[in-house]
Amino acid sequence: GMLQVGPRSAGADPGPACYGLGGIEATVTDANLVLGRLVSDAKLAGDLLLSVEKARNAIANIADQIGISIEETAAGIIGIANEHMAKAIREISVNRGFDPEEFVLASFGGAGGLHVCALAEAMQMKFAMVPSRGGVLSALGMLVATRGRQFTRTVGLQQDQIEVSALEAEFQTLEDQATEELSDQSAQPPELNSKRSVDICYRGQSYTLNVPWVGLADTLMNFNAMHQRRYGYALSGAVELVNICVDVQVVADALELPGATVQKDSDNVANGEVYVEDGREDGVAVIARDAMKSGRRLFGPAVITEYSATTFVAPDWCAETDPSGNLRLQKTV
């Protein structure tokens, strides 16, 4: 049958075969390790060494059935995983009327940087970014995010049933509820910012679009424009207002994170071996992220390592650090 990747995950226990914790099925992590995009002598969580041998053995079980090399099988695993992720990106961009070429692809998570160049290419994007502390970005975001409350109430109103004054009163009720909950958590009454929106659809549709509430006439006009952009058409018929929503946030000063600090000699570069589309490539630069001074450019193929993540700079891409420690990647051809 066809090679399938996911949706099941090996999790952390037993994890990928390369963890040596009992996992025997090949994973995307094993494939990245076999291709040299993960550095085999790096330690995870401080003391877990990855086993290239166990990763190769797991992938060999598949390669033998297909009749191709272990490296080709690993590349196939990565290719399928990338296509799954590209499909998800298309869902929130192209399918919503946005041109990915006009944006920068931002990746996060320990493995996000391993796939970011390939995903950007799949979306015909020329720029990508791996943020500072990208491996723990979700956890960092949870710690620094402002407190807030989101409330939704179903109203189910046809267009000719909408009374703006009654709707404004409904919004105010939800905002009062959010304000009460947030005030109960604060020693002093907090300064709050509220955003109102509505879920709207054309009468008879089974799906809605969320549109900021800016008064009835302008909201309906913006809904039609959004529907046109996302689905390629707009209707002149009546609409249905399904839900009203409020997002109330505590106003807080923006957190200023420290910039990147170069810990080592920026010329401390090791040589590695990676497999790319054209085959094996020797003498590939392997450098610690904190050894890259701001403004230094590194041309792919290359591997950039750090405590919580790894970035693979693909051929025809270059990486450059900015003063905040973010990795900015750019397609060079």
Structure explained in plain terms:
By secondary structure, the chain is α+β, with helices and mostly antiparallel strands. The chain has 3 domains: 82 residues, no CATH class; 108 residues, no CATH class; 103 residues, Dna Ligase, domain 1 (2-Layer Sandwich), CATH 3.30.1490. The protein is built from 7 helices and 15 strands. The strands form 4 sheets. A 5-stranded mixed beta sheet has the order 3-4-15-14-11, with helices on one face. A 4-stranded antiparallel beta sheet has the order 5-8-6-7. A 4-stranded mixed beta sheet has the order 9-10-12-13. Helix 4 links the parallel strand 3 and strand 4. Helix 1 crosses helix 3. It is elongated, with a radius of gyration of 25 Å.
Largest sheet: 5 strands, mixed
Strand content: 25-35%
Strand order of the largest sheet: 3-4-15-14-11
Show unreliable segments.
Answer: none
Radius of gyration: 25 Å
Order of helices and strands: HEEHHEHEHEHEEHEEEEEEEE
In total, how many beta strands? 15
Q: Give the CA-based shape.
A: elongated
Question: What brief labels describe this structure?
Answer:
elongated, Dna Ligase, domain 1, 30% helix, 4-stranded antiparallel beta sheet, 5-stranded mixed beta sheet, alpha+beta, 3 domains, 7 helices, 333 residues
